[in-house]
Amino acid sequence: MGVNVPAFDQKHVVRSALAPGYPLTGTSVTIDETAAAFEADVDSAIQLAESELRLTRLAAETQRTSRRVNALQHALIPRLVAERNYILMALDERKRGDHFRLKHVKQTLRRRCVE
């Protein structure tokens, strides 16, 4: 649709097992599992933020396009149709006037020829 949407350069937050940021000897497996789950949740949150921003911008563009379509349907197109009808009416009147003048000229010429 031509909408600029962001693309995050996502770096995975998952750390290796050797660099958790806390001593391995004094902690339980539960902390390791919790840290791994948190890192996965952070990755998911970043992907969700990217998707949400993309959808927000697409929705805004859709709404803007919808307003433009409504403006065309309810304002511009009826005005153009009315202008077209006015022009057609003016051209028809001009054609009838020209036709009447031509008939009048022909009658005048016939009268002059007869006399």
SSE layout:
Elements: H1 29-114
SS-based class: mainly alpha
Order of helices and strands: H
Percent of sequence in beta strands: under 5%
Shape: rod-shaped
Task: Count up the helices.
Answer: 1
Alpha carbon gap, first and last residue = 77 Å
Summarize the structure.
The protein is an all-alpha fold and 115 residues long.
Task: Walk me through the structure.
75% of the residues lie in helices and 0% in strands. By secondary structure, it is an all-alpha fold. The longest helix is centred in the middle third of the chain and has 86 residues, at 29-114.
Pick out its properties.
0% strand; 1 helix; rod-shaped; 115 residues; mainly alpha
